[in-house]
Amino acid sequence: MKLLREILFPLIAVIAALIVGGIVVLIIGDSPIQTYKLMFGSAFSWPDGIGYTLFNATPLIFTGLAVAVAFRCGLLNIGAEGQLYIAAFATAWVGIKFGGVVISAPNGAVVNTPYANLPMLVLLPLCCLVAIAAGAIWGGIPGLLKAKFGSHEVINTIMLNFIAVALVSYFTQYLYKIPGDAIMQTAEISGKAHIARLGKFIPGLPERIPVNLAFILAVLACVVVYLLLWKTKWGYEIRATGQNPSAAEYGGISIRKQIILAMAISGGLAGMVGINEVLGYRYRYYDGFSANYGFVGIAVALLGRNHPVGVFLAAILFAILLRGGIFVDAYTVHVSKDIVDMLQGIVIVFVAAEAMFRGPLKKFGFMRKAKI
Amino acid sequence: MIELRNITKRFGAVLANDGVTIKVRPGTIHAIVGENGAGKSTAMRIAYGFYTADGGEILINGQPQVIRNPHDAIALGIGMVHQHFMLLEPMTVAENIVLGSEPGSAVSLDLKTAAAEIRKVSDEFKLSVDPNATIESLSVGQQQRVELLKALYRRAQLLILDEPTAVLTPQEVEEFFVILRSMREQGKTIVIITHKLSEVLAISDDVTVMRDGKVVGEVKTGETNAAELARLMVGREVLLRVEKPDAKAGAAVLEVKDLTIGTREGAKKLNGVTFEVRAGEIVGIAGVEGNGQTELIEALAGLIPGSHVSGSISFEGKNITNLDARKRKELGIAHVPEDRHRRGLLLDSSLSENTILGVHYRRPAVTGPGNVILDQKAILSRTEQVIRDFDVRPPNPVLHARALSGGNQQKLIIGREFELPPKLLLVSQPTRGVDIGAIEFIHRKIVALRDSGCAVLLVSAELEEVTALSDRLMVIHTGEIVGEVNPKVTSNEEIGLMMTGGGH
User: Fold this and answer.
1) Between the CA of residue A133 and those of A82, A125, A138, A187, A265, what are the distances in Å?
2) Per-residue confidence (pLDDT) for residue A286, from 0 to 100
3) What is the DSSP string of B314-374?
4) How far apart are CA A170 and CA A161, in angstroms?
5) Are strands B63-65 and B55-60 parallel, antiparallel or unpaired?
6) How many Cα atoms occupy the beta-carbon half-sphere of A330 within 13 Å?
7) Predicted pLDDT of residue A2
8) How much is the average pLDDT of B375-385?
9) Which end of chain A has the least Cβ crowding within 10 Å, N or C?
10) Which residues on chain A are in Cβ contact (under 8 Å) with B301?
11) Which one of A237, A247, A370 has the shortest CB-CB distance to B12?
12) CA-based angle B183:B462:B185, to the nearest 5?
């Protein structure tokens, strides 16, 4: 019963969004059935559809988890976007500076020399850890500010987003770009810091499809977050703080500590997007790579009810929409890929307007919550 | 005046009102008593139009009426005063009273006429409320009179009062009753919802007793007594008095010296309080709420930042002034907080997660290397034990705390704290909003804990409760202990006087 209720509202929201989206498609002048067939068909085709869907889902799982963990502690992390930029750049930096990569201009002049040339067994884990640590630090800052001075994390995370984007752009442009490169990107990281694409292990899945081991890492992250939140005393303290800070304080839990901890974990999870992006996909830091992953992560967490399983499913759904949108854009006469944004928006509106559904459902006895 | 006939109201699976029939005679004070969840507030909210009944009808002066919302009710001459006042603090009495039916035109507010009218009504019923005073400058008792005035100003003939005395001091209750009687003399009809039997007997003409959504008794006040009413309410015989042997007080467990608590703004919430609590005794603190009791208990529990506290707190001879809440709990200081929803519970967590709050980080709640993993089995068995020992209902560890009634939530908290086991129990408002049956149970448990050698510091706004339970009683007023009395020989009136700063 409880599980049903947990799944019911997000499910209704998604279905309702699809219906409303269908009506809009109809008004525009295309067939909703054809459009949806195209959308879901292209997302589930083998190998490209599934491969790209999973690849698209990976960053959303990380950011969805990030927002969910913070939310369980009563915090709204709007800063996943900034955290993942910082983390992606940091991991690329390590992949260059500790991977023995020399950046030289086309004329051969050396502009940036490495600190070390670490072996793969050291470099690869280091790159991963640095991504997590950088995200954790960038997320921990607003946590610290809230714990120490009571300044609101929403304001601070938003502000830190701007700082993060500007900061990494600056470093990319002036220190780690190959001189003369027209694209805002760093030099390529050491080959020893690459993580394998799933095509290497799965027959029939070509390696050109960028879904990589980071996806497996994302699934693991879901499991770890679940265990952390519900099976350990740390998770208990985070959830208690989120549910009722006064009661948590009464229970001998330091709220300040929990706020910093939760924001750091949240930032670390967001930072793992950098692993997917830099170590598994582009092998370099590419400025402005994020398709609003940090912000879509908020929607993912909301739809997934801040639960790892829900986050996973919601991320997959949003990834399907992203993938399908491209094909809808290309193969329908009138509908553009903006339909994806619209569907996302409607899903969120419906999820947020849960109370709207509670009324009618109560009549059918789905909700049993009475106050006398 | 008003008659509810066969009112039925269902919330989901719960039948809150089951064929409720209440007839209120005009010009009387009619008490409706019953435990929490008995359906008395529901019935009255239906009469006031907050809820619509699923079945049954409402008759006003013999005429069937449809009351869809409070506007309908007001038009029919029904007024309601809620337990929690609905007043805007920074605004004046007059502004509050006219809210919703502002006199004057659309662009100008004619407060002068309103103020004059309010003064007239106020004098008529001897309410002595100044229409131009701001709400925040008034005492709780005066604020309540503003609520009454609000209803009277709208020409209410029938006033429904929901737990009106819960926030008043004994003196204020007396004054309040005088007002009620004068209103009755002027022909108003009053329905008073309460669970305090002594007040029912003191003020009402008729009593309706409700239990589990049904009316289980209708009696004339003159023909009944407290024991009968309690039995009707609970459905079995209830011990109204706390039976306890004399305390065998041992060594001092808690010693408080010159405890002063300031706020950031510099106001002193507690001023130079010194006392001790010995093993095996219950020390009560009586006082009007907001006179420093909350801060005292929270400071002793370690919940007030050290920078705001001066003076010293010793536990078993050891200075604990600088220890945090967790360390103090580890020493054996249990704390039943005054506000169980704000402090005491994780409402949207299971009973299991609630029974480990405060001990969740140490064995037996955790297991494995570094004591990190929650031991679900141990937690469950602890929860089951608390449920069994403290009769928490329904006895289902996976239920969310929110699903329990107030009494059962309180039993869960008390069970959790008793499980510590405590050497010192700080307990604040142990039976607020708790059913009579559970009150009896909780009182017995506290006395039993005392007899096992635990020191107990009790704070309660219920004067009857502190006088009945305490072995020694201190009275607090504006952050200072103004006296200590023997609760066995001191009258409630005398204590009441001390509570308001008079006497001694």
Assistant:
1) 14, 12, 9, 22, 9
2) 96
3) EETTEE-TT--HHHHHHHTEEEE-S-IIIII--TTSBHHHHHTTTTTTSTTTEETGGG-EE
4) 14
5) antiparallel
6) 8
7) 64
8) 96
9) N
10) 250
11) A370
12) 10
Confidence check: pLDDT of B137 > 90? no
- Within 217-236 of A, beta carbons closer than 8 Å to B belong to 231-234, 236
Check CB contact under 8 Å for A247 and B348.
Answer: no
The ipTM, to two decimals, is 0.85
Spell out which chain B residues touch chain A, with contact meaning CB-CB distance below 8 angstroms: 11-14, 16, 37, 39, 41-42, 301, 303, 324-327, 329, 335, 337, 342-349, 353, 356-358, 360-361, 365-366, 371-374
CA A306/CA A72 separation, integer angstroms = 7
Reported as half-sphere exposure (CB side, CA atoms, 13 A), residue B237 has a value of 2
For the record, the structure tokens of A367 come out as 């909700």
As a whole number of angstroms, the distance between CA B33 and CA A288 comes to: 67
Helix and strand numbers (H, E) in chain A are 15, 2
User: A239: which chain B residues are within 8 Å (Cβ-Cβ)?
Assistant: 346, 349
Q: Which residue of A has its CA nearest to B330?
A: A252
Cα–Cα distance for residue pair B477/A206, rounded to 1 Å: 80
Taken in order A287, A289, A292, A294, is the CA torsion positive or negative?
negative
Chain B interface, best mutation among A249, A361, A371, A372, by max B CB count within 10 A: A372
- Give long-range contacts, CB 8 A cutoff, 24+ apart: B173-179: B173/B199, B175/B141, B176/B141, B176/B144, B177/B202, B177/B203, B178/B126, B179/B125, B179/B126, B179/B127, B179/B145, B179/B148
DSSP string for A1-23: -HHHHHHHHHHHHHHHHHHHHHH
Identify which of A231, A244, A362 has the shortest CB distance to residue B374: A231
β-sheet bridge partners, residue B217: B209
Selected residue of B54, B336, B361 to mutate for chain A interface (largest A Cβ count, 10 A): B361
B500: amino acid identity, one letter: T
Angle at B485 between CA B489 and CA B269, to 5 degrees: 145
Report which DSSP code applies to A181: -
For residue B446, pLDDT over 70 is answered with yes
**Residue numbers in chain A where pLDDT is lower than 70:** 1-2, 354-372
Return the amino acid letter for A51: G
- Closest Cα to residue B336, out of B425, B271, B275, B245? B425
CA distance B150 to B144: 10
Mean of all residue pLDDT scores within chain B:
89
Measured N-to-C along each axis, helices B406-418 and B436-451 cross at an angle, to the nearest 10 degrees, of 10
Residue type present at position A4: L
Question: How high is the pLDDT of residue A358?
Answer: 57
Which chain A positions have a beta carbon within 8 Å of B12's beta carbon? Answer: 362, 365, 367-370
- The side-by-side arrangement of strands in the sheet containing B455-459 is B333-336, B424-428, B455-459, B282-286, B472-477, B480-485
Give the Cα-Cα-Cα angle B362, B365, B368 (nearest 5 degrees): 75
Rounded Cα distance, A324 and A18, in Å: 13
Which distant-in-sequence residues (6+ apart) come within 8 Å of B47 by Cβ?
B2, B4, B58, B67, B73, B78, B160, B191
- How far apart CA A359 and CA A12 sit, in angstroms, is 14
Q: How many CB pairs under 8 A join A and B?
A: 87
pLDDT over threshold 80, residue B223: yes
Assess A244–B contact: CB distance below 8 Å, yes or no: yes
- φ/ψ of A177, rounded to 5, equals -90, 145
Name the pTM for this structure. Answer: 0.82
Measured at the alpha carbon of residue A229, what is the angle toward residues A223 and A234, in degrees to the nearest 5?
Answer: 125
Rounded-to-10 torsion of CA A110, A115, A117, A120 = -120
Write the DSSP string, B43-108.
HHHHHTTSS--SEEEEEETTEEE---SHHHHHHTTEEEE-SS----TTSBHHHHHHTTS--S-SS-
